[in-house]
Amino acid sequence: MRAKILIVDDVLSIRELLEIFLKKEGYEVTSSPDAEQALQLAKTVDLDLIISDIRMANMTGIDLLREVRDQGFNGQFILLTAYADAETAIQALKMGAYDYIQKTENFIEELKLVVAGALENRRLREENTYLRREFRKLHGMGNLIGKSQKMQELFKMIEVVSATASTILVTGESGTGKELVAKAIHLNSPRADCQFVSVNCGAFTETLLESELFGYVKGSFTGAATNKKGLFEVADKGTIFLDEIGETSPAMQVKLLRVLQERVIRRVGGTEEIPVDVRIIAATNRNLPAMVAEGQFREDLYYRISVIPLEIPPLRHRRDDIPLLANHFLSRLNSSMGRGIRRLSDEALKRIEAYGWPGNVRELENAIERAFILETSEELSAKHLPESVAGSKPRTPVAIPDDGFSLEDYVESLQKSYLEEALRRSNGVQVKAAELLKMTYRSFRHYMQKYNIEI
């Protein structure tokens, strides 16, 4: 598709010259003798570039630039002038003009290069916008899989809290996907176009963690040959994810508390306080309230990071999601490895549904990948699953009424039924009935009396 360019100049000869030249270059060109008409064209035509003279009657090119930006024009803008004016050029560039060209004897050749550069810049901007949108689709809610009620409730909470700037504490067992939740919050937030920085607080010593988070100045320690930004500075205007915050030392907890309170950091070895605008999402698989009670975690820091707590349920508490996740991982492996394993076998599904998954979603993903690599047919079979999973016994499905029920009454009715059936099959001989139920005669007599069973 040809780029659409609008020329705005109150001198007819300039408009005609530029129109003829740019059409020869392959662009779709229209022109306007004044800024007022140009404003109307910008509202109705999807323009890629506006080239405008600065000095015009009624409205200057600078005023036109301001007006079209205010009405939502996001294309490129080039200003032309017969008079060199550095102050005006700086003003134009600050307002978002792509470039500023003086009408010299050979300015047409210069304009040719600037127009090509402006349109390429616009193409790259649109491509980046598209890629960011696709990235959000892929890494936003898309990687959080679940149809269970617990996960649906979590998704709703993510949508609500993403719009805020509040600090969030994500809790859950190892392997439940705490970082995925943090990324989803970031990518659905107003900060999505800025950095998401993740750091595992448990992976560093106290000294290394401090320099990672806050940076350092040249000469502050052996090997500090240059100044280095910390991750809080890198994440400015974006989000920092502090994973395993429960592993931090008391001294580091004090430093983190100060960042949360003052929104400033100080590099290791430095004296300057550097302001940071960062959303903090913390995560842990430890019981922070218990750690607070035992004096292992600062109470004031705990309340600062848990403004909005989000708990991710373990996989065993959302078994409806297990087949969904397994098929998701299978589909992703097929795409990345170019294979065609169409589905999991019925037996494989039974085994993965029966297993307890102490390692949660991460363990399930690894199990599916292992079986996928070993599988040679078009159906992923149970025999290639890890031994712990393949040996799990299928679960007996149970149903609980919506309004609940008395488990104790239900168990007692079952016991009575089995006692009566055992007596029937043993023709009323209590010793034989007790043997059928693997009970002592004394226990059998006790339950007969409890349930008023008569022979």
Low-confidence stretches: none
Biggest sheet features: 5 strands, parallel
If classified by CATH, what would the architecture of the largest domain be? 3-Layer(aba) Sandwich
What is the number of helices? 19
What is the strand arrangement across the widest sheet? 2-1-3-4-5
Count up the domains. 4
Gyration radius from CA atoms, angstroms: 34 Å
User: Could you name the CATH homologous superfamily of the largest domain?
Assistant: P-loop containing nucleotide triphosphate hydrolases
Overall residue-averaged pLDDT value: 89
**Beta content:** 5-15%
Termini Cα gap:
93 Å
| CATH C-level class of the largest domain | Alpha Beta
Structural class: alpha/beta
Tally of extended strands?
A: 16
Roughly what percent helix? Answer: 40-55%
CATH topology of the largest domain: Rossmann fold
The gross shape turns out to be elongated
How would you characterize the overall build of this protein?
The chain is elongated, with a radius of gyration of 34 Å. The mean pLDDT is 89. Strands 2-1-3-4-5 form a five-stranded parallel beta sheet, with helices on both faces. It has helices at residues 12-24, 35-44, 61-70, 86-94, 107-139, 149-162, 178-187, 206-214, 231-234, 250-262, 288-293, 299-305, 321-337, 346-354, 360-374, 387-390, 407-425, 430-436, 441-450, and strands at 4-8, 28-32, 49-53, 76-81, 99-102, 168-171, 196-200, 215-216, 228-229, 239-243, 264-265, 274-275, 279-284, 308-311, 343-344, 379-380. It folds into four domains: 4-132, Response regulator (Rossmann fold); 162-313, P-loop containing nucleotide triphosphate hydrolases (Rossmann fold, 3-Layer(aba) Sandwich), CATH 3.40.50; 316-390, Helicase, Ruva Protein, domain 3 (Orthogonal Bundle), CATH 1.10.8; 407-450. 48% of the residues lie in helices and 13% in strands. It contains 19 helices and 16 strands. By secondary structure, it is α/β, with parallel strands linked by helices.
